[in-house]
Structures are given as structure tokens and as C-alpha cells.
Write a structure and sequence with these properties.
heterodimer, A: mainly alpha, two-stranded antiparallel ribbon, two-stranded antiparallel sheet, B: 32% helix, globular
């Protein structure tokens, strides 16, 4: 019971963090048809910029300033990438766009190592969030995890409400299915693409500040989480926001529960197999439901 | 107000439009006829700047301003409404939301008609469907919505591509009445239409396209008399239209 509840809470908070990351990736894909290989690199950039900004503003509650400024900076960079790189090669098709984001991922990884070095940075949650929020059967639930969950939920609610109830949200929804028609009605669709790309990368940046301080900030962090995010987007169905949510939760729970379980199958303990489980799930989904859980693409 | 001169355009491989010239005057309905595949829909897309390849030679002007080379949204904002073939309503949004998106920024609040457009006055059938998802509407209702959505931005020129395709006669009649009343209120219409009777009833001028250029231009009465034109370019022989 104790194990169940603690794992549930941990899985929930990890799943929400994953969704902050996969939401941007899947929205950008369904709107623009661009599968952004550099998405996890923007996550990493969020962590590094978050660290740097919290150093600069250390006297003024640096972390909280970083939590606001780092995602904005990453989002602005994302907008520049869309405006000046992706848009320029859009006419050449998806392969060119894919290669561009692929190259960008390497570029960001190198840049990060040049500026901050190869070792992990001492980036931690602020002191005010260290310590337990409450205890369950003797095991403490960190206040930091609770904050992470609340923040992710608030961001997601903001996205959902924006998409559903604002004019801009409706225009973005319409552009999911009929971008050319939306533009023929007088809407600046290229600019909508740029802002959407920026919003997606800003969310990745926010996830980076949270994830980087909670877990680790080092040059390998993009390569570590990138594949997981792709797995989530594929399991949920490329382009489906609700699908990405379900898959994020599933992968979050899968990994936290598996790490805590100690029984073995064929000599391999479940805990040892935990990192492989999401990929196994992806293979199964691709075998039995190639469009993903909630994907609606016919092919 | 719309002047197209010797326009060459297409989809990259091969020119579909090979020197099209066409005029639409304010408050006028021009019907664009021709067999399938002669480039009528392509012409509308070229006007809207929606072709993937840039136009070759020629010019397209609206109120004296060049359209070619401008982005689709800029062209729309100058006061041209587009009702595409196949309606292209936003299926996951409601009727009211579809209309809201039609009210684009930068388009004049009251264009040709001089007052804000009321979709539900033009198409009362849409009134009861305000909160219905557009994807579940009938073909006729979707067509009404598509026209109303384009009108929500108060264009002074409406490009309408095959509005009656696949619809029942009663709905066709309703749409024809609506388009005619729009024209009487001062909205110019460039109409691509397969149904000859509707085209001749609505239009003051008829243009026939064949092989990427105009092969006939005249009044509906002149077309009635020009039997050889009808036979050669529309495939209609003998019968009165």
C-alpha cells in the first residue's frame, strides 16, 4: 500500500513532466508536419539557461526568476529557428526539415559543452522547496515534487483553455486540419506557426528548468530524454494531444513502478528492465495499433 | 476591380494557366465555365496566391494593386473571400466558431454591403445549428457555412468554386437565391459552376475556359446563340440551355 501510493505520486509527477515535453512536440507536428528532433535539446537549453539565470540573480530569489525567464528565452530562440531556418527550407519538404532539426540537436549539444563544460552542473531546487510536504507511511513526499506537479497541471490547463476558449486557440485548432483555408480567411498562418513553435519550445524549456534542477543538468540530458519523448508521441498517436497525455502518464508510471518492484523474469529483474519498458511498449503499439492509441491517421 | 492579364501559372510541373485574361467589375457576377480540368479552380487558387509555385508571366490586379507574389492572407485581407471546392469547413469546430474564424483581423468591418454581415439572416438554417460541429452537417449546410464564413470578413469580391456540386435541387435553389441576393447587395462574385442553368441565371457575364485560356466571353444571351462555342468547349449540342 505504501509502495503503491508513493510510486503513484512519483509516477504522476514524472508523467506530468514528460507531458510538458511531449505536448510541444506533438502540437508542432500536427500543425506544421515537422517532427522536431531538437525538441529535447530545447529542454536541455532550458536547464542550462535556468542554471545560469539563477546564478546571475542569486540575490533576488534566482531560481524563481529563472523559472520565468529561461522558458521565455528558449521560446524566443525557438521562434527564431522557425522563422529563419525551418521556414526557409519548408518548400523542400519534410526530409530537409527533419535533417535541419537533427543538425540543430548536435549544434545545441556542442554549444552547451563549449559554454558550460562537460560535467554536471550544481543546479538544485530552491531551499524553500526542499524538505517534505507530507509523509505517507513514513516515507516523505518532497515539496518539490508537489510543486512540479502543480506547475505542470497549471500549464496544461492554460493550454487547454487557450485552445478551447480563445479566438487564437480556435484558429490554431482550425489550422490543424485546414491551414490553407485558415490563411485564405485572412489569418497570418506563418506567424501562427512561428508562435506555436515558440510556445512548444518554451514548454520544453520550462520542463528543462524543472527537470534539470530536480534530476541532473549535464550535456547528455537531451540524448537521455529525447528518445522517451518520441516514444510517448508515437504511443499516443502522432499529433494527438490527449494521446500524448495518456502515454506520458503511462510511461511515467511504468518507469517509477518498475524501478520499485523487485521480482525477476528469466533472470532479469523488472527494475533492471525499467529503461527498456517504454520502447517495448512502443514496439507493441506499433505492431497492434500503428496509428498510436489516439492517432487518427489512416496510414 | 479584378483585372487578370495573360496569366501563366500552375503547380510547378507544367503550366495549367497559359495566358488567362479576365475582368470582374464591382457588383458583378461572372460565371466561369468549361470542362473539368481546364484550370478554373487553378485560376481561383492563383488569384488567392495558393499555388505552390509562383506565377510565371502575366499580372493579376485588385483595385489596381498587384496580387502576384503576395501571401494568401494578405490577398484575403484586401477584401477577397474564397469558398473552396469541397467546402473545407473546420470539422471539429462548431458553426459559430467557424464563422468567428471568418472574421479575420485586418479585413474591413463593413465592406461592399456597408453593414456588418449577418450569416444567420442569409442562411436561417444555420441558426439552429450554431453549436453543432461542422463535421456532422449535411453537404448543403456545410456549403452554406463555407459561404457564410467567407462573407464574415465582408469581402467585396467572392470567389466561389463549385458550390452546388453533389447537392439536392432544393438546396441548389436556396444557394442560388442567396448568391443572387449577395450580388444585389453589391458583392462581386466570380463563380465556377458546373450547372449551366444556375450559372446563366446568376451571371451577367460568362467566360469559358479551354486548355488554360479564355475561349469565350459574353452575356448569357450571347452564349445561348453561340452554338458552336458550346459544342466545342462545353460539349453541349443542340439543346437549349
Amino acid at each position: 500500500m505504501e509502495f503503491l501510493l508513493v510510486s503513484l505520486l512519483n509516477g504522476l509527477s514524472y508523467g506530468l513532466l514528460l507531458f510538458l515535453l511531449s505536448a510541444g512536440l506533438t502540437v508542432v507536428f500536427s500543425l506544421m508536419g515537422v517532427l522536431n528532433f531538437a525538441h529535447a535539446s530545447f529542454y536541455m537549453l532550458g536547464a542550462y539557461l535556468g542554471f545560469q539565470i539563477s546564478l546571475w540573480f542569486a540575490q533576488f530569489g534566482g531560481f524563481w526568476i529563472a523559472l520565468v525567464l529561461a522558458p521565455l528565452a528558449v521560446g524566443a530562440l525557438g521562434m527564431l529557428v522557425e522563422r529563419h531556418l525551418l521556414r526557409a527550407i519548408h518548400r523542400r519538404g519534410q526530409t530537409a526539415e527533419l535533417l535541419l532539426t537533427f543538425g540543430l540537436a548536435y549544434l545545441i549539444a556542442e554549444a552547451v559543452q563549449l559554454l558550460w563544460g562537460r560535467s554536471a552542473l550544481p543546479f538544485h531546487p530552491p531551499a524553500s522547496l526542499e524538505g517534505a510536504l507530507f509523509s505517507l507511511y513514513g516515507s516523505a513526499f518532497p515539496a518539490w515534487r508537489a510543486f512540479m506537479m502543480a506547475l505542470a497541471l497549471a500549464m496544461l490547463a492554460a493550454i487547454a483553455l487557450t485552445l478551447r476558449y480563445t479566438r487564437v486557440g480556435l484558429i490554431v485548432q482550425a489550422a490543424f486540419t485546414h491551414p490553407h483555408m485558415v490563411e485564405a480567411l485572412g489569418h497570418d498562418v506563418p506567424r501562427i506557426f512561428m508562435w506555436t513553435f515558440g510556445a512548444g519550445t518554451a514548454l520544453a524549456g520550462l520542463a528543462g528548468v524543472i527537470g534539470g534542477s530536480a534530476f541532473v543538468t549535464e550535456p547528455g540530458m537531451a540524448a537521455a530524454i529525447g528518445p522517451i519523448v518520441f516514444v510517448i508521441v508515437v504511443i499516443g498517436g502522432l499529433g494527438s494531444l490527449p494521446g500524448a497525455f495518456i502515454a506520458s502518464m503511462a510511461v511515467g508510471f511504468m518507469q517509477t513502478f518498475a524501478v520499485g518492484l523487485d521480482f525477476a523474469v528469466a533472470g532479469v529483474s523488472i527494475a533492471q528492465a525499467a529503461p527498456v519498458l517504454p520502447f517495448l511498449a512502443m514496439v507493441l503499439v506499433l505492431l497492434f495499433r500503428p496509428s498510436g492509441l489516439l492517432g487518427n491517421r489512416a496510414d | 476591380m479584378l483585372e487578370i492579364r495573360d496569366l501563366h501559372a500552375g503547380y510547378g510541373r507544367g503550366e495549367v494557366l497559359q495566358g488567362v485574361s479576365l475582368d470582374v467589375a464591382p457588383g458583378e457576377c461572372v460565371a466561369l465555365l468549361g470542362r473539368n480540368g481546364v484550370g478554373r479552380s487553378t485560376l481561383l487558387k492563383a488569384i488567392m496566391g495558393m499555388l505552390p509555385a509562383p506565377a510565371g508571366m502575366g499580372s493579376a490586379r485588385y483595385h489596381g494593386e498587384d496580387l502576384l507574389g503576395h501571401a494568401t492572407f494578405e490577398i484575403a485581407r484586401r477584401g477577397i473571400g474564397y469558398v473552396p471546392e469541397g467546402r473545407e469547413v473546420f470539422p471539429n469546430l462548431t458553426v459559430a466558431q467557424n464563422l468567428l474564424i471568418g472574421e479575420a483581423p485586418g479585413r474591413s468591418a463593413n465592406g461592399a454591403t456597408g453593414k456588418a454581415f449577418d450569416a444567420y439572416a442569409l442562411f436561417p438554417a444555420l441558426d439552429a445549428l450554431r453549436d453543432t460541429r461542422a463535421g456532422v452537417l449535411s453537404g448543403g449546410e456545410q456549403q452554406m457555412l463555407s459561404i457564410a464564413r467567407a462573407l464574415a470578413g465582408n469581402p467585396s469580391l467572392l470567389l466561389v468554386d463549385e458550390p452546388t456540386e453533389g447537392l439536392a435541387p432544393a438546396v441548389v435553389r436556396l444557394l442560388a437565391t442567396a448568391l443572387d441576393s449577395l450580388r444585389r447587395q453589391g458583392v462581386a462574385i466570380l463563380l465556377v459552376e458546373q450547372k449551366m442553368t444556375i450559372a446563366l441565371e446568376l451571371a451577367q457575364r460568362v467566360c469559358i475556359m479551354g486548355r488554360g485560356r479564355m475561349v469565350f466571353e459574353g452575356s448569357p444571351q450571347e452564349l445561348q446563340r453561340a452554338e458552336s462555342v458550346r459544342a466545342q468547349w462545353l460539349g453541349i449540342q443542340g439543346q437549349t440551355i
